[in-house]
Design brief:
This protein is α/β, with parallel strands linked by helices. It is 42% helix and 15% strand.
Length: 317
């Protein structure tokens, strides 16, 4: 098994040392990085006003780093204690502050799910006059119109967990029909999945989708492979270390832009900032130049927004 990621290391740096760390963490971390794949050929990433590289989603130009919503909604994948901490932290006011900070840092797009749960913070944020774009993760075909009215997203993407389940049940046609309905509403349509085979099949069959959302980890493996014997005490979902190799291989093969998510293993690759930077580097080295990443942020301890923007600026250009 090759050295896909830097091994976890204790992080003893205090928050006050973070700015100094970010200035000096380029050559040493890069030298420690091994096992990187070649970047696929493609158009260079055009920087936005804040210097973050951008990619094209249909007619829209969006930052290559997109802020996700799992921490905001209390989905940590690290157990109920962390879930509760995230839900307690992310009041509507703090969520608006996070998105405002992201926009100031050049992160100009937010991927959210559950329009009803997003409404308490999206409404006030829009009233501020934000120019941020929104991508909605969703799966209810009969409620597409409601989601459009609530959030005015630029794209709607079929929810990954539901995609994996429907494909496993022989009902992939429902996912395809959802994408057609999204197009009927005049928006970009996408498919999210944790299982690389779902993305590969949609691409091979020529589905009319504008983008894919690709989990670096096949966390729904148990639901689609019921006979799988996984001797692990992992909380909630098993994260297999080599899963990113399989998904990024598919991302490089499909023509559509892809948005990789769970690139940090839902916090499992966040033992220190060298590990975080290495995970960003792995992602950008192994996806197409026309692809981006979605990263959830939980800045209760330090400035994750500034750090992630820095890594994207350095590594994703």
């Amino acid at each position: 098994m090759s050295g896909t990621f830097l091994p976890p290391q204790p992080d003893g740096a205090a928050p006050s040392t973070r700015r100094r760390f970010l200035k000096g963490v380029s050559s040493a971390a890069a030298a420690a990085w091994i096992g990187l794949g070649k970047r696929a050929a493609g158009e260079p990433a055009v920087p936005n006003e804040a210097g973050l590289p951008t990619i094209a989603l249909g007619k829209h130009r969006v930052s290559r780093l997109i802020v996700g919503s799992n921490p905001i909604l209390g989905y940590s994948y690290l157990g109920p204690h962390t879930d509760r901490q995230m839900r307690h932290y992310f009041t509507p006011e703090r969520t608006v502050a996070l998105l405002r900070q992201c926009e100031q840092a050049g992160i100009d797009t937010h991927q959210f799910s559950s329009p009803d749960r997003a409404a308490p913070y999206l409404g006030p944020f829009r009233e501020e006059g934000t120019k941020m774009r929104f991508i909605c993760l969703h799966s209810e075909r009969d409620k597409i119109h409601e989601a459009v009215d609530a959030a005015a997203p630029i794209a709607m993407v079929h929810h990954g967990g539901v995609t994996d389940r429907l494909f496993a049940q022989g009902q992939a046609g429902r996912v395809r029909d959802y994408c057609k309905a999204v197009h009927d509403h005049g928006m970009l349509a996408g498919v999210s999945a944790h299982n690389p085979d779902c993305i590969r099949r949609a691409a091979d069959e020529g589905w009319e989708v504008d983008l894919f959302m690709n989990s670096f980890y096949f966390i729904t493996r148990r639901s689609v492979e019921p006979d799988l014997d996984v001797p692990t005490l992992d909380v909630g979902h098993p994260f297999f270390r080599d899963d990113p190799q399989a998904m990024t291989a598919v991302m490089r093969q499909v023509d559509q832009p892809c948005l990789g998510f769970k690139i940090l293993g839902a916090g499992r690759l966040c033992a220190n900032q060298a590990a975080v930077r290495a995970a960003f580097q792995y992602a950008f080295e192994n996806i197409k130049p026309t692809d981006g990443v979605i990263v959830g942020m939980f800045p209760w301890h330090f400035d994750e927004v500034g750090a992630n923007a820095t890594y994207t600026r350095e590594l994703g250009a």
